[in-house]
Amino acid sequence: MPIPADDASLAEVAAALAAPGKGLLASDESVGTIGKRLEKAGLVNDEETRRAYRELFYTAPIGKAGISGAIMFKETLQQAAADGTSFVDCLTRQGVMPGIKVDEGLLPFEGHDLATGETSTRGLDTLAAAAAGYRQGGARFAKWRAALRVDASRGFPSERAVELNAQQLAQYAAVCQAAGLVPIVEPEVLIDGTHSAAEFGAASERVIGATVAQLWRQGVALEGCLLKPQMVIKGADAAGGRAAPEEVAAATLTVMRRVVPAAIPGIMFLSGGQSEEEATLNLNAINVMAQQQGKAPWSLSFSYGRALQASVLKIWSADSSRAAEAKQMAVALAAANAAAVRGAYDAAGKHPSVTSDSSLREAFRGWHGPTASAPAAAAAAVAQ
Ligand code: 13P
């Protein structure tokens, strides 16, 4: 079936975002999430600090380094560089498409045992109006994150979590396409836990398979959307330490081949708590293996948050007069991952990052409550 005329431009945008050697900068952390990272680095979480931090990335030549699109938070979409140039213009002028996070964070299931930590995602009620506004404001694509927790001993993710999140992801994708925005569909299977690579793979297969089936059922044009999953890795607390990049590559490609249709132009992995170097090495191994085996119909790329930002924040938070050095780091991290998309990263070389291996782990980022002392209502609003 030929895709309708309106969807043709969606397909063009999706193809450009996932063009060979290109990937996405996920710089769309909510005020709460970026605030935690700024504060951990010794900075204040105020609007000006957030703006100045984003400026480092958007005014660095990240487009030339391989960034095709940058996902922003709603506050950031409205902001401008110190010289008055809007961030949307800073990005567009260097060939980087502006994108927007459109979900409103995670929420425990209503009436569900809160302690399970299973969530759905908020934001569908107001999405149609919001999406039209974001498109007018210059966004070309839009991300929605679902978070699925793995605990094989309890049957997690539960069927209910898988199906509800798949339905929400497909509804969001359909609404965004109707508003002229390419959906970046993110069913994140969380790294938190002791699950083996096999358990992670089985959960990923269920979650991504259900999501793709819902996209198809709800009439989403697959050519005009991108998928943003986690790689198939071990749980962060699994026995035996991290898996080798070749193991991650083999497990990831197996799952993706089983459940992701060739019509989807790009699989843009998140970094999800991997170290900056690990995220690059794993992505490189995935592409090297895909090229050797010749059975990958999609671009295998990145939409990294922490793995493109952590070292930049480390430099800038140490001394804000080191902005030029921080920008160079933003470019170097983008270039390393763009090389990995081509399977051309020098795995024996020195990675540009300056953070420690474990520092990007944020325990249960998908779920921050409740605790014995926190009332359930307060715990119910979960930041992303
Ligand atoms: P990380 O790469 O830090 O996981 O962030 C990607 C993202 O956008 C999660 O929603």
From TrEMBL:
Any one Gene Ontology BP term: glycolytic process
List its EC numbers: 4.1.2.13
Q: Which reaction does it catalyse?
A: beta-D-fructose 1,6-bisphosphate = D-glyceraldehyde 3-phosphate + dihydroxyacetone phosphate
Q: Which GO terms describe its molecular function?
A: fructose-bisphosphate aldolase activity
List the SUPFAM superfamilies: Aldolase
Please name the InterPro entries in this protein's record.
Aldolase_TIM, FBA_I
- Source organism, top-level taxon: Eukaryota
Which pathway does it operate in?
Answer: Carbohydrate degradation; glycolysis; D-glyceraldehyde 3-phosphate and glycerone phosphate from D-glucose: step 4/4
Q: Keywords of this protein's UniProt record, alphabetized? A: Glycolysis, Lyase
Pfam families on file: Glycolytic
The record's annotation in PANTHER family points to: FRUCTOSE-BISPHOSPHATE ALDOLASE
Q: Which family does it belong to?
A: Belongs to the class I fructose-bisphosphate aldolase family.
What protein name applies here?
Answer: fructose-bisphosphate aldolase
Q: What is the lineage of its organism?
A: Eukaryota, Viridiplantae, Chlorophyta, core chlorophytes, Chlorophyceae
